[in-house]
Amino acid sequence: MAGELLRTGVSPESELRASHADRDRVVDVLRIAAGDGRLTAEELDERLEAALSARTIGELAALTADLPSVADGGAVEAKGVVRIEQKGASARRGEGWVVPRRMEIRSDWGEVTLDFTEAVITYDTLRIDLDMRGGALRLVTRPGVVVDTDALVTNYAKIKTRRAAVSGAPVVLRVEVTGELSFGQVEVRPPRRGFGRKAMRD
Predict the structure, then answer these.
(1) Are strands 173-182 and 125-140 parallel, antiparallel or unpaired?
(2) What are the pLDDT digits (tens) for 114-159?
């Protein structure tokens, strides 16, 4: 993809080697553009993968050539903290939801599902502070989303992790689950119907 976009024009500066900071700036532009609805989830995944592996300034510039700069476009409105409080109910975040930096989940005998397959990812880390009694927290991942439950305290509870058959995609989001879970479970799994050809390629 990057090779196709590069044919639009080349300047001497475009052949300069890209730094980590250069890649980070382009990743920010791509995530903001996705939050504004300028890129689909699949386009975002493809361009993030290309950005993280880009070697030159020209390759990076090609990935944002059809997008406004961060200064010209409005930033996606991702909240710093999102709170979910419920008793005996279910909550779900699905298609197009904007992943915040932190979530506080308080749930008694209910279920919370966070589906990342078509979520808009604006931060590289999501910290979930969990206080759950009964019920379940379900995290539906996609290539590049990893979940860490090492800091979660469990009492008569289970953590079930099912990984995708094919892995190796660059990490775009790390989900850190902390807090306490009693008489319930955390389930981490890929989408049941697969993630299309993109998942098979990663």
Answers:
(1) parallel
(2) 999 888 888 889 999 999 999 999 999 988 899 999 999 999 999 9
- Structure tokens belonging to residue 127: 């910290």
CA distance 105 to 69: 35
H or E element in which residue 33 lies: helix 20-35
Number of H-type helices and E-type strands within the chain: 5, 11
- The yes-or-no verdict on residue 187 having pLDDT over 50 is yes
Asked if 81 and 104 touch (Cβ cutoff 8 Å), the reply is: yes
What pLDDT score does 69 carry? 56
Whole-number Å distance between alpha carbons of 43 and 67: 12
Q: Distance between CA atoms of 162 and 96, rounded to whole angstroms?
A: 23
Q: Alpha-carbon distance 45 to 100, whole Å? A: 18
At 9, which helix (H) or strand (E)? none
The mean predicted confidence, pLDDT, of the chain is 81
Residue 35 CB neighbour total at 10 angstroms: 22
Q: Which helix (H) or strand (E) holds 200?
A: helix 196-201
Q: What is the helix (H) or strand (E) element at residue 195, kind and residue range?
A: none
